[in-house]
Design a protein that fits this description.
Blueprint: H1 2-19, H2 32-35, E1 42-47, H3 55-64, E2 67-70, H4 76-79, H5 89-100, E3 104-111, H6 118-121, H7 127-144, E4 151-156, H8 186-198, E5 203-208, H9 216-231, E6 237-240, E7 243-244, H10 251-262, E8 267-275, E9 277-278, H11 287-305, E10 310-315, H12 324-327, E11 333-334, H13 347-358
Parallel strand pairs: 1-2, 1-10, 2-3, 3-4, 4-5, 5-6, 6-8, 7-8, 8-10
Antiparallel strand pairs: 9-11
Helix pairs in contact: 7-8, 10-11, 11-13
Bound molecules: (3S,4R)-3-hydroxy-2-oxopiperidin-4-yl beta-D-xylopyranoside.
Length: 361
Amino acid sequence: MCDLVKWRALVLVLATAVLGLGSGAGVGEQSLREAARGSGLLIGTAVRPAQLSEAAYASTLAREFNTLEPEDALKWEVVHSERQSFDFSQADQIVDFASRHDTKVRGHTLVWHRQNSKWLTEGKYTSGELAEILEKHIRTVVGHYRGKIFAWDVVNEAFDELHPGQMRSTIWSDQPGIGLAGNGFTYIERCFRWAHEADPQALLFYNDAEAEVVNPKSDAIYAMVRDFRQRGVPIDGVGFQMHIANLHADVASISANIKRFTALAVQVHITEMDVALPVDSDGNARAEDLQTQANIYRQIATACVSHPGCTAIQTWGFTDKYSWIGSHSKKTQGAALLFDRNYRAKPATEALRSVLAAGRL
Ligand code: XIL
């Protein structure tokens, strides 16, 4: 009798696992977030609040992901478009959605050279004034979401593309900067310290592009993170954006890079993954490219789950209906995400799901 009960329980567990019963995903499928449950890996996506009222958008989002990140809603031009006031309405919608769906929120981004407000970029402020403005921004935004946003991209893309190792020339670094121009990455340190004071529990990340592989740029970021760790500057992680074009990823080098960063006892989050494909004038990609794309998603996810310190995989949006790839590439590239324009899972979703379901390697 007892054996029969056990046997029935086993059948039920297997049926649930195989059929994804109760997941809302198609028959035979687990959702991504269900697949990630065993490993505890965060599976996230960038979110546009205006789309939350679209039923298919909201249901796919809630079903598939356990982490959300505002795509633009926390950038200066949205959250701090007037000097004297802050507008959290857009980002609050995402945070509310997340709390209703038991989903975490990453914050993006406090310090960047793009999508800043006009009053800021055209204001001709002194370094002293800019330091005050930036400190207030960081304290106010992080403070508003204290306890609600678990991790922040404090500084985004601060290293120079053309002169690796050097800081990008920006309003925050040296144009005129917050008073620390010529002092390497000291201005970044200042930002991390302000953010930490505003929410001591939040995990603080440095996020960048084209530093996913071992190269001069990631060497420079590595040197900064090592220095921060040695001196107790509050940094908890590094974000690898992972926007992949040309259907190519040097996975061995990405893996080696994840390895060396996590060896500094910081986490790595894959923060903005997409894999752009060539598309025709209707936005459609070739079947073989969709398979190659799936393979790239599989390889990057495998590189992440192979390192215990790699704790999140996020994509930069989830449906090809809404993706910055396309709007930024004159429509010759697109179809970069996990779900098609009708919210159907693409081969890439299946690939990612199977890696997540297999768990930590
Ligand atoms: C992009 C958004 O996806 C677009 O909606 C916006 O028009 C421009 O910015 N690296 C980043 C992201 O860190 O913030 C960028 O997001 C994509 C590149």
